[in-house]
From TrEMBL:
<dbReference type="InterPro" id="IPR002403">
    <property type="entry name" value="Cyt_P450_E_grp-IV"/>
</dbReference>
<dbReference type="InterPro" id="IPR001128">
    <property type="entry name" value="Cyt_P450"/>
</dbReference>
<keyword id="KW-0503">Monooxygenase</keyword>
<dbReference type="GO" id="GO:0016705">
    <property type="term" value="F:oxidoreductase activity, acting on paired donors, with incorporation or reduction of molecular oxygen"/>
</dbReference>
<keyword id="KW-0472">Membrane</keyword>
<comment type="similarity">
    <text>Belongs to the cytochrome P450 family.</text>
</comment>
<keyword id="KW-0812">Transmembrane</keyword>
<keyword id="KW-1133">Transmembrane helix</keyword>
<keyword id="KW-0408">Iron</keyword>
<keyword id="KW-0560">Oxidoreductase</keyword>
<dbReference type="InterPro" id="IPR017972">
    <property type="entry name" value="Cyt_P450_CS"/>
</dbReference>
<keyword id="KW-0479">Metal-binding</keyword>
<protein>
    <submittedName>
        <fullName>Cytochrome P450 4A10</fullName>
    </submittedName>
</protein>
<keyword id="KW-0349">Heme</keyword>
<dbReference type="GO" id="GO:0004497">
    <property type="term" value="F:monooxygenase activity"/>
</dbReference>
<dbReference type="GO" id="GO:0020037">
    <property type="term" value="F:heme binding"/>
</dbReference>
<dbReference type="Pfam" id="PF00067">
    <property type="entry name" value="p450"/>
</dbReference>
């Protein structure tokens, strides 16, 4: 009877009646077997997670593309615990105790090929290179610029950029117009980054048309994040097709502007050996690769510092009691009258405001994966085999209510007596040996900018136009509205 039942099916696997159906049947059978293997027999089968993520990469690809990856995975952690399988070979950890075994220099877990999408003009940079050893020589050359003493030497240049930023914000506030503080803060960040590193400011704050000319380039640099987990070769083809089929004149003009600035910079006879580009060129780094590193730095400084400064201004306007407390500290401090020292530690509430702003801003909110090396890795009782991509997302740590009570609230006071877990899990600049090399510079610039704005009382009478700031949770987050608006009455 069973044989008769199968013989009545409208296809013949080995015949010619419906050969295409036979192909579909075999393909479906193969996919079913593959899914069964990944769910029940794969080395990661013991790690909890949703069935869709265990079977296929499509679940992770989709949520990365639409920009809600971190939020969705956060819900998975609430359901399954601190270790979750989010793709056939990808594991997400929501436990700050795993930072050291994953990101420390001792374990030396390398970056997976995902990061190569952030290469600039097909050149690997300090950020996108996969092997730690590959970037060592370049890091040694430029690290003096990011040291505390290197930043102090640029105090005059930083002060000039801060003063220009404050003047422009004051002018726009006094005009009672709605101000896009994101565009203004990114222009400031672009100028202060280039002035410090290259010895030649980009000049974004002097431009009279908004958005400033490099803004499109900063926006363009975010695009690989939505395709982060896609094979790099596939992504390269899609990127080329998108450029051909859907050209964006704003971004094209912005890239031309940045290229023109760097071309002038690198061909200048006044290039200082102590500058970022001078140090790289003196190490024998070819001009095209030096230009790529410079572009990477313009993006990193311009976007990261700009977003954080704008978000903190918005948070202070939304929390007038915190703004008043910060202003009282600055007015009461002797250093506020004489200019103070750069990154002055005598202003604890200012330090707390910036720490809390960095916690909530999270320019890089998503998981930063590493490849488990030979010997495997044990995390929270789960053994992860070699070759597994494993990582921790800043969003999972920064919004963990067990470490940061009321995690979505702006509470600078929480940093008056931080717990060891708070210090460990505060990772706005990344984690471990591959954390952001510009964290010292960024922290100083953000502190100085917020200090100057509050001292001048520029946020008095301001209101936030947006009730909330929503982002695409890519590798480097992108604001959905591409603006942060404040209005003065």
């Amino acid at each position: 009877m069973m044989a008769a039942r199968f013989s009545s099916l409208p296809l013949e696997i080995g015949g010619t009646k419906h050969p295409w159906l036979a192909g579909v049947f075999l393909l479906g059978l193969c996919l079913l077997v593959l899914c069964a293997y990944r769910v029940y027999l794969h080395p990661l089968a013991h790690v909890p997670g949703p069935l869709a993520a265990k079977c296929s990469w499509l679940w992770l690809h989709y949520h990365a593309y639409v920009g809600d990856e971190c939020t969705r995975i956060r819900r998975l952690h609430e359901k399954y615990g601190p270790v979750v399988r989010v793709a056939p070979n990808e594991v997400d950890i929501a436990d700050g105790g795993a930072i050291a075994p994953i990101y420390s220099a001792k374990t030396d877990l390398v970056k997976p090929p995902h990061y190569s999408k952030f290469a600039v003009d097909a050149h690997a940079t300090v950020f996108s290179t996969l092997e730690t050893a590959d970037r060592s020589a370049r890091l040694r050359a430029v690290m003096p610029l990011f040291s505390a003493s290197g930043v102090r030497e640029s105090k005059a240049a930083i002060d000039d950029c801060v003063a220009e930023f404050v003047t422009l914000l004051k002018t726009q506030a006094e005009s009672r117009q709605v101000v896009d503080v994101l565009n203004l803060a990114e222009a400031f960040a672009c100028d202060v980054t280039t002035a410090h590193l290259f010895g030649d400011s980009y000049g974004a704050l002097k431009e009279t048309v908004a958005p400033f000319s490099a803004a499109g380039y900063l926006d363009f640099f975010l695009s690989p994040g939505r395709f982060f987990y896609m094979p790099t070769a596939t992504w390269a083809v899609l990127e080329w097709l998108a450029a051909v089929l859907f050209p964006n004149k704003h971004i094209e003009h912005s890239i031309v502007a940045v290229n023109s600035y760097l071309d002038r910079l690198l061909k200048s006879s006044k290039t200082k050996p102590s500058s970022y580009q001078g140090r790289l060129l003196s190490q024998g780094v070819p001009a095209l690769e030096t230009a790529a590193e410079c572009k990477d730095s313009i993006f990193a400084g311009g976007y990261f510092i700009g977003v954080v400064v704008a978000r903190i201004l918005w948070l202070l306007v939304r929390n007038p009691d915190r703004y008043a407390a910060l202003r009282r500290e600055l007015l009461d401090s002797k250093t506020s009258s004489d200019g103070g020292r750069i990154n002055d530690q005598s202003l604890p509430y200012l330090q707390s405001v910036v720490k809390e702003g960095l916690r909530l801003s999270m320019p890089s909110p998503a998981r930063l994966p590493r490849i488990v090396s030979t010997g495997g890795l044990v995390v929270q009782g789960y053994r992860l085999p070699p070759g597994t991509n494993v990582g921790i997302a800043a969003l999972q740590l920064h919004l963990n209510p067990d470490v940061f009570p009321e995690p979505e609230q702006f509470l600078p006071e929480r940093w008056e007596h931080p717990t060891p877990e708070m210090r460990r899990d505060w990772v706005p600049f990344g984690m471990g040996v591959r954390s952001c090399i510009g964290r010292g510079l960024s922290n100083v610039v953000i502190l100085e900018a917020i200090k100057a704005v509050v001292e001048a009382d520029l946020l008095a009478g301001a209101r936030a136009v947006q009730d909330k700031i929503e982002v695409k949770e890519w590798t480097i987050s992108k604001l959905k509205e591409k603006e942060i608006l404040l209005a003065w009455s």
